[in-house]
Specification:
Elements lengths: L5 H22 L17 H23 L3 H20 L7 H24 L9
Length: about 130
């Protein structure tokens, strides 16, 4: 269970996002479900990198299926987890600006969803806690 293990690395990203979302719900008493957010506020390099990675997901699934190459999903989700960890180290989700916080919540919720879907595609659990 180290960051050198790609499965642990990706699962840890999912669990870390789950932890942040729980913290937002409890400490900030904020709804994280279908509340709209102004994603144009996401302008940092790490935010943009995450958005680009998320946009690649549908194409990666199609290509992996057409080529019968499940390793593409594995590589993609490892890259996505890496982008999330970079984001986590450079940006705070819980910030004073409520609009920015909502945008970042939406961003990480999207990352969590895609990680969970990738892990499901390759038959690996997406834990909420680690």
């Amino acid at each position: 269970q180290t960051n050198e293990n790609p499965v642990f690395y990706v699962q840890y990203a999912h669990a870390r996002i789950s932890s942040i979302l729980r913290q937002v719900k409890v400490q900030e008493n904020r709804d994280i479900s279908d509340k709209p957010a102004d994603v144009s506020l996401l302008t940092t390099e790490s935010e943009m990198e995450l958005l680009k990675k998320l946009a690649q997901f549908p194409a990666e699934v199609v290509i992996a299926a057409k080529l019968k190459a499940p390793h593409r999903i594995t590589s993609y989700v490892i890259d996505l987890a890496g982008s999330f960890h970079s984001f986590y180290n450079s940006c705070r989700v819980i910030v004073e600006d409520p609009a920015l916080m909502d945008a970042r919540i939406k961003l990480i919720f999207g990352v969590k969803t895609v990680i969970k879907n990738c892990l499901a595609l390759i038959g690996v659990e997406a834990p909420e806690r680690m």
